[in-house]
């Protein structure tokens, strides 16, 4: 079989460093022949993402804070100036205040709640609206979710509520964009030690619990998440939209 994403162009938002799930997705997309555009949030991350972009087939690297509409507009105008066609978009972005990931959920402030929703859920809607016109031949929009959207996971709190909204956004966007042959899905990944995950109190206990009890008796490898992202972005995934696909060593089936 040839490369699964040969001739395709993909935009990946959410690489912070080489441990980011989005970086693993970038590596797999690159391996399968996709041409990549990456974004970073804030000047602080620029150099790191530019260096990683070199490893990812000399990917183009652009700034984009997804909470700022003008930054999204600027990103789209740069992409349009370059011919403008996109085949896949990966949204791998989330944020909540550290305090809200360590104390009881009932203490979540309105500001903390809205911040988590804005960055982690609404941004998918903003990204979909901005990028859909560029997916002229149809395409794949993918986001990353977690089991805390539907089950209570200690300390995941406000982020679980944001992931519940994110998964609902996936379904509504899939219905809106389906007639344009744009498929919208989420991968619900098992826990992986990344910069964001380190913000969750006692995260290492979550990793230990999964390794001990998941049907595959181990944690999730980011490369497994990335290969599922390749499937969804490729022709192989052409019939799949509006889904939340678990790549979690099977942990989500457990009741006890
Ligand atoms: P990560 O490497 O820290 O990636 C999170 C990314 O979100 C970072 O690149 C961060 O940029 C970016 N971001 C935050 N606010 C942003 C904004 N306003 N505009 C643009 N980018 C922004 O952590 P990760 O674990 O790979 O997370 C990626 C996604 O996977 C998230 O949606 C996360 O919830 C999800 N997920 C993670 C796990 C896990 O266990 N790690 C499991 C399931 C799902 P900065 O670093 O510059 O702020």
Can you give a write-up of this model?
This protein is an alpha/beta fold and 256 residues long. The protein has a single domain (9-246), classed as 3-Layer(aba) Sandwich (Rossmann fold). 39% of the residues lie in helices and 15% in strands. It contains seven helices and seven strands, in the order βαβαβαβαβαβααβ. It has helices spanning 21-31, 46-55, 69-81, 110-131, 157-177, 203-213, 222-233; strands at 9-13, 35-40, 60-63, 88-91, 139-145, 182-189, 244-247. A seven-stranded parallel beta sheet has the order 3-2-1-4-5-6-7, with helices on both faces. Strand 2 (35-40), helix 2 (46-55) and strand 3 (60-63) form a beta-alpha-beta unit. The longest helix has 22 residues, at 110-131. It is globular, with a radius of gyration of 17 Å. The relative contact order is 0.15. The structure holds NADP nicotinamide-adenine-dinucleotide phosphate. NADP nicotinamide-adenine-dinucleotide phosphate is lined by residues 14-16, 20-22, 41-42, 45, 65-67, 92-95, 119, 144-146, 189, 191-192, 194-197.
- Give unreliable regions as ranges: none
Tell the overall outline. globular
Assigned CATH architecture: 3-Layer(aba) Sandwich
List how many beta strands DSSP finds. Answer: 7
Percent helix, as a range, is: 25-40%
Based on secondary structure, the structural category is alpha/beta
Distance between the termini: 41 Å
- At the first level of CATH, the class is Alpha Beta
- Provide the residue-averaged pLDDT: 97
Give the bound compounds.
NADP nicotinamide-adenine-dinucleotide phosphate
Q: How many domains in all?
A: 1
The named CATH superfamily: NAD(P)-binding Rossmann-like Domain
Largest sheet: 7 strands, parallel
Taking all Cα atoms into account, the compactness measure Rg is: 17 Å
Going across the biggest sheet, name each strand in turn.
3-2-1-4-5-6-7
């Amino acid at each position: 079989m040839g490369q699964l994403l040969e001739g395709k162009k993909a935009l990946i938002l959410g690489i912070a460093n080489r441990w980011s799930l989005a970086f693993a997705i970038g590596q797999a997309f690159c391996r399968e022949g996709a041409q990549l555009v990456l974004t970073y949030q804030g000047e602080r991350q620029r150099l790191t993402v530019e260096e990683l972009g070199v490893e990812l087939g000399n990917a183009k690297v652009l700034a984009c804070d997804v909470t700022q509409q003008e930054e999204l507009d600027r990103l789209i105008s740069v992409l349009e100036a370059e011919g403008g066609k996109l085949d896949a978009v990966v949204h791998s972005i989330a944020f909540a205040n550290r305090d809200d990931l360590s104390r009881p959920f009932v203490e979540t402030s309105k500001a903390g709640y809205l911040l988590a929703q804005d960055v982690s859920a609404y941004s998918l809607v903003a990204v979909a609206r901005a990028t859909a016109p560029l997916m002229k031949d149809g395409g794949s929009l993918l986001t990353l979710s977690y089991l805390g959207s539907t089950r209570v996971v200690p300390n995941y709190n406000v982020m679980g509520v944001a992931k519940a909204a994110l998964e609902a956004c996936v379904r509504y966007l899939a219905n809106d964009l389906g007639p344009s042959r744009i498929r919208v899905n989420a991968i619900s990944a098992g826990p992986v030690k990344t910069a964001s995950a380190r913000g969750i109190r006692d995260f290492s206990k979550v990793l230990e619990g999964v390794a001990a009890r998941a049907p595959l008796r181990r944690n999730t490898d980011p490369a497994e998440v990335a290969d599922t992202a390749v499937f969804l972005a490729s022709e192989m995934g052409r019939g799949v939209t509006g889904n939340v696909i678990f790549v979690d060593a099977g942990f989500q089936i457990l009741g006890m």
